Amino acid sequence: MTQLSRRKFLKVSAAGTATAVLAGCGAERWVELVPYVEAPEEQMAGVATYFATTCRLCPAGCGVLVKTMNGRAIMIQGNPEHPVNRGRLCARGHSGLQILYNPDRFTGAAEQPERGSREYQPIAWNEGINRLYEALNGAGSRVGIWLGSTTPGHLVELFTMFAEAIGAEPPVRADLYTLYNGYNVLEATNGELLGSARLPVYDVANADVVFSFGADWLGTWLNTTGYNLAYSQFRSGPYGQRGYFVQFEPRMTNTGAAADRWVPVRPGDEAQVAQALLRLIADEGFGSEERVAAAQAVATDVDVEAVAAACHLTVEQLATLARTFAEAPRPLALPGASLAGRDNASAAVAAVQALNLIAGTIGQAGGLSLSQGVDDVGLQPVLSSSYADARALVERMQAGEIDVLLVHSANPAYEMPAELGFVDALANVGTVVSFSPLPDETAVYADLVLPDRVYLEGWGYEVATPAGASGPIISSQQPVVGQMFDARSTADVLLTVARGIGAAASALPWEDEVAFIRERVTALPAPAYGGEGDDLRFARFQQFGGWWPAQAPEAEAPEADVSAIPAVGPAAYQGDEAEFPYHLHLFMNPLLADGRGASTPWMQGAPDPMTTISWQTWVELNPTTAEELGVKHGDVLRVISPFGEIEAPAYVYPAIRPDTIAIPLGQGHSDYGRYARNRGANPVRLLGAEPGENGNLLWSNVRVRVERTGEEKSLARFETTVEEAADAHPPI
Predict the structure, then answer these.
(1) Distance CA 593, CA 92 (A)
(2) Which of 9, 85, 619, 707 has CB atoms 3.0–4.6 Å from 225's, for a disulfide?
(3) Phi and psi of 598, rounded to 5°?
(4) Torsion over CA of 660, 664, 665 and 667, rounded to 10 degrees?
(5) What local confidence, expressed as pLDDT, does residue 382 receive?
(6) Predicted confidence band at 44 (pLDDT cuts at 50, 70, 90)?
(7) Contact 89, 80 (CB under 8 A)
(8) H helical segments located in 343-498
(9) What is the pTM for the complete model shown?
(10) Region 387-411: what's the mean pLDDT?
């Protein structure tokens, strides 16, 4: 292995120094936007310029157009040419400007002499890169890499190649967004059931009936923007012909609010309902002979009466739902996040997928198909890691087997259960490096901060998560403005370091990030928009916002392995029922998501679509439960699980089961900038550290108890009840 001296390595390091002063702990900082004296190149003063790029605020990979004026980004909108979202964009996507202009971003490379002090000291970039090189050189297998779901696809590939070259384990790619939504469970189950470990694609637009089992697909599940578009098509038929939609879930989401029928299901029991429907179709002969025979082949023993009673339905009502599904020309079933949060998650997902199998629409319009992998077009597939993978890395840290930990686009100090012990395990890691643009909870424990550019400043590509697309989609990312602060591309930093490490130098030979991306993009098959020659193809890749095939390859309908559908018993809950009488249900706020939206005031101030609450955490409980406990709006409650406790004000919510307590994710940051810091509580503290039998995060099978603290706290909400309005404005 080639060894470089510190002095020689400086020569191959990226040049530059940290010229801006980083704010210390608690210090206020002002960002002064000075108008250009001279217009940027190829821009005319007062004339808007639009750039196509990719939103990176969730894994979906929606295409966006960014309007710039005089070199400043002033508006983000959906890209109508992009097949993932076709011009639509969610609220979080529109908030991207506040990521770019966030006043709490790191202004350059920094070190922290004492972990947890929050006393970040600015250092020159070449010094930071050299320190990273010194830590990685010779570390080999003792390097750990933790990536998030929004780490761009090209960077995931570079980190993977780097890890392989130095003999380290592959990167862990896990964060609360993908663990909560069960990406790895969906992939693994489809591998067992349909022969390919890929994410599912549900053709909602062309379905006649949709049964959703805990899937908030209009809010936070997979590609919500794409599914919102599909939903509008699903509902576009004339009266009597529009699609019929049933939602099974413990607490009404905004997806449930859009349903024709909402059925309250105990957390973790969604698969039991799916099995009961299959049993009824098989026993009662609902639907065609083919569907009845298929149902008889996969139906398992289940107590239909008990399932119906648990859902507050009669057996006849449940049978009506079974008949509705079986007799529809193109029925579709969606296995949602809460299935992935129980003990035997894969079996639960398979139980719902079995409804799609008996429908006979696998690979057809209105049915279930699998996303076509990028390996089909020459790119490295990017899969999500399981919670068990993340736990294994933490265990290696605890055992002192990790000397260097690299963290990009993930915040495990905030996102992982406290019981896992991630923060304590950092004490056994020699060097912790964060690439976060913001001082999040994990950066607080970093020795070295090398902030990456935010997505509006950087290059990249992302393997999109389609919601009905017929082929693979690679979304492009390009700088739409100049850098606000002295950040550096993490890909360029990694390539620079690799030049000094023998095997890595040969494995990562590219001059810079753009050269790597260009090589990958120009090697793709002919795109839908045309363009010959590498220069033109790469330019149009940027212009259109990505790559998608001129003609999607005809995918064969996957053949299902019926034997892979096991019976699913009642959920096994953590916590004794006598001590912890209520089921805990965590839900992802469509605005804050898993907490990544908390750094933007737009998302903090926007009202929750179901409760109108903003800027805080709340605890939802049914009016019957509230009356039993003597609780009213604003009473501060202590929610206690076998693993931890939090406090938050109560919100009495009629659309939730009486045996269930629901709490939104997203708040409870101790850091992450001024808009997120010290606001609300983090309910992940209520979860345990043990994974499920499928390596999944167990979040939907935890029991809790509730105690009144005697304190009150006003709820920041737009909504009032009739009674509250009367009290506030008594009649004259």
Answers:
(1) 9
(2) 85
(3) -70, -15
(4) -130
(5) 73
(6) low
(7) no
(8) 345-359, 387-398, 412-415, 422-425, 490-498
(9) 0.91
(10) 98
25-59 burial, b at 16+ Cβ within 10 Å, e below that, comes to eeeeeeeeeeeeeeeeeeeeeeeeeebbbbbbbbb
CA distances from 33 to 30, 73, 101, 481, 675 (A): 10, 12, 10, 13, 20
Find tokens 């009669």 and name the residue.
314
- Mean pLDDT of the region 655-659: 96
Q: Which residues have CB under 8 Å from 667's CB, separation 6+? A: 592, 595, 598, 616, 617, 676, 679, 680, 681, 682
User: For the residues 475-496, what does the mean pLDDT come to?
Assistant: 95
**Could you tell me which of 341, 345, 385, 409 has the C-alpha nearest to residue 180?**
341
Tell me, what's the pLDDT at 43? 62
> For the residues 347-376, what does the mean pLDDT come to?
88
Neighbouring C-alpha atoms within 13 Å toward the C-beta of 173 = 19
> In degrees rounded to 5, what are phi and psi of residue 603?
-75, -35
Q: What pLDDT was estimated at residue 13?
A: 37
Strand duo 404-408 + 261-264: pairing: unpaired
Q: Rounded distance, CA 251 to CA 357, Å?
A: 28
Span 174-187, average pLDDT: 93
Q: Is the CB of residue 678 less than 8 Å from the CB of residue 636?
A: no
The predicted structure's pLDDT at residue 467:
64
Average the pLDDT over 324-331 and give the result. Answer: 96
pLDDT above 70 covers a percentage of the chain that reads 90
**Bigger pLDDT: 195 vs 435:** 435
Q: How far is CA 338 from CA 179, 265, 386, 730, in A?
A: 11, 11, 15, 44
* Percent of the chain whose predicted confidence (pLDDT) is above 90: 75
Residues whose CB falls within 8 Å of the CB of residue 408, separated by 6 or more in sequence, listed in order: 145, 146, 147, 148, 151, 155, 159, 435, 436, 452, 490
Q: Tell me if 408 sits within 8 A of 449, measured CB to CB.
A: no
CA nearest neighbour of 215 among 355, 365, 114: 355
CA separation for the pair 458, 437 (Å, rounded): 12
Query: CA triplet 241, 276, 197: central angle to 5 degrees?
Result: 80
Please state, in angstroms and as integers, the Cα–Cα distance from residue 269 to each residue in 182, 256, 359, 697, following that order.
Answer: 16, 17, 22, 16
Residues 259-280 have a mean pLDDT of 94
Instruction: Tell me: pLDDT of 38 over 50.
Output: no
Strand partners, 656: 251
CB 546, CB 487: distance < 8 Å: no
Strand 172-173 with 143-147, pairing: parallel
pLDDT at 666 over 90: yes
Starting at the edge strand found earlier in the chain, the sheet holding 331-335 runs 261-264, 244-249, 209-213, 331-335
Helices within 139-258 (DSSP H only): 153-166, 176-181, 183-194, 224-234, 254-257
CA 411 vs. chain centroid, Å, equals: 12
pLDDT at position 720 over 80:
no
Which is nearest to 85 in space by CA: 109, 113, 57, 111? 57
pLDDT at residue 721, rounded to an integer: 61
**712 three-class SS:** strand
Q: Could you tell me if residue 236 is left (phi over 0), alpha (psi between -120 and 50 degrees) or otherwise beta?
A: alpha
Tell me the C-alpha distance between 222 and 245, whole Å. Answer: 18
